[in-house]
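Researcher: Next entry in the queue.
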Amino acid sequence: MSYGDYPRLEGIKKILVIKLRHLGDVLLTTPVVSALKKRFEGAEIDAYIYKEAAPMLEGHPGISNLILYDREWKRQGFFLKMAKEAKILSQLRKKKYDLVINLTEGDRGTIASKVTSARVRVGFDTDKKKRKFYTHLTKVCHGNRHTVERSLDPLRRIGIFPEEDERDLTFHIPNSAEKNVLDLLSRKWPVIGRYILIHPTSRWRFKCWPAKKMHFLLKRLLNEEERVVIVSGKDVFEKEMVDEIVSGLDGNNLLNLSGAVNLKELGALIDHSSAMLCVDSVSFHIANALKAKVVALFGPTSDITWGPWRNPYARVLTKDFPCRPCYMDGCGGSKMADCLHTLEEDRVFQAVNQLLNSSISLIK
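Model: Structure for this entry, 364 residues:
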């Protein structure tokens, strides 16, 4: 194993891509699958991911099989968890992969890579102790670089350089999700027409704009006779935050779907919206995959690393603080980030209104 020449890639028939991370991280790896599918036409490409991230890859035309790790196993006791992990490793070994691309730095992906005994195993060079597990190592770029490009680096390491048309994100919306969303909207508004979608929450509280500010923004949009759909995840904190945001507002033009839609249905809502407002969350990455009009509010996280990707209708709003991005869970670990909480309501309203009525790129 070294940083030497590219490996021989003739005869690659079975490929495994490993990405044991959160929802958005998995979606941002879809160009890796697209590039592999084009390079190895007819090859079987499997993905090893967390169970909750399956909707991010379901329906991708390059994916043959999803191998799912259920993080709920840890609640079932140590021995049962180990038995289920051993079963997955046995499954991976029996597949006899020719090429493994591990896009995860943790131990689980590293062990899975080694167990496959694939003749080409590519991973990131983040731990000297793990170098023996791979045949080829990818140097880690520590500068400002988008996550999609970082994910494509292991392919470059073995001589696969993705073309521009292979770098788009892919998110498949099934007909069932489309139908469910149109039914929900038509029950509220028989003639659906234009609406603004707001996804104000994240599982990480420090990424959220204050509920009070979102309340006044929503009130202003409703006063402008705009129709608004508001969504969130199923987490109790997220639903409680949405309840606080919508409290006391006129419901005629407001549809609250907090905790009521799955990820595929969220994609359909984004696809049909006239514009969306969100924070740094999976909904933003889905919007980029669908090339939807979206304004995203960024605080402690980097809008260079996690910002718009190949979407001419995406705009990010930030405050120019010298300490951002710090990636801390709020200033001093307080769960409240000053760089996000001081973002002005009027500035956000103007950005949404401008994007809503514009057909040109607003990326700055």
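Model: The first strand starts at residue 14 and ends at 19.
Researcher: Noted, moving on.
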